[in-house]
Design a protein that fits this description.
Elements lengths: L2 H12 L6 E2 H7 L6 H11 L10 E2 L14 H10 L12 H4 L5 H6 L4 H11 L2
Parallel strand pairs: 1-2
Helix pairs in contact: 1-3, 2-3
The protein binds a DNA duplex through helix 2, helix 3 and strand 2.
DNA sequence: GCTATGACAAGGA
DNA sequence: CTCCTTGCCATAG
């Protein structure tokens, strides 16, 4: 029940259908820009099947990068395709097209510090 | 408190 | 494209 883990889950739940975010992006949104790794961990541990859309999270290059046996790349791909996200042959997603950037009000609701909001817009260029 | 681990990021060769 | 290094940090044991 750490703030970090819960934050990750909450944010991932905000990702709209048909859009994806990167681990790093979620990390910034939860207030720990250097904890991209833990984002994956949080989803693995706390993610609830059918409730937490873990498949909408990919790595910085837009590649699917799961290693989990129960949540395979293929399963993730299927989920994404079903939602209208184009997944290329090499499990590549066009982040330019499908990256989700939250509204300012959404970020505000997360009680996120201004500096992180600024960091987000800098890093992922809205 | 310490070490090891990891569904990553970023930058370089 | 692949392979490597460094940085970071929550959790597990």
């Amino acid at each position: 029940m750490s703030k970090f883990t819960d934050g990750v889950i909450n944010i991932v739940k905000l990702v709209p259908k048909g859009k994806v975010v990167s681990y790093g992006q979620v990390a910034v949104m939860v207030g720990s820009p250097r904890s991209a790794l833990q984002v994956g961990w949080a989803l693995h541990i706390k993610g609830e099947e059918g409730i937490t859309p873990w498949w909408r999270v990919v790595n910085k290059d837009g590649y699917i990068s799961t290693k989990c046996e129960e949540h395979t790349k293929n399963i993730q791909k299927e989920h994404l395709l079903k939602e209208g996200v184009e997944v290329g042959k090499n499990l590549k997603i066009d982040m330019k097209k499908f990256r989700w950037f939250p509204k300012y009000s959404t970020l505000k609701n997360l009680e996120l510090d201004e500096k992180y909001i600024y960091l987000l817009s800098e890093k992922y260029k809205i």
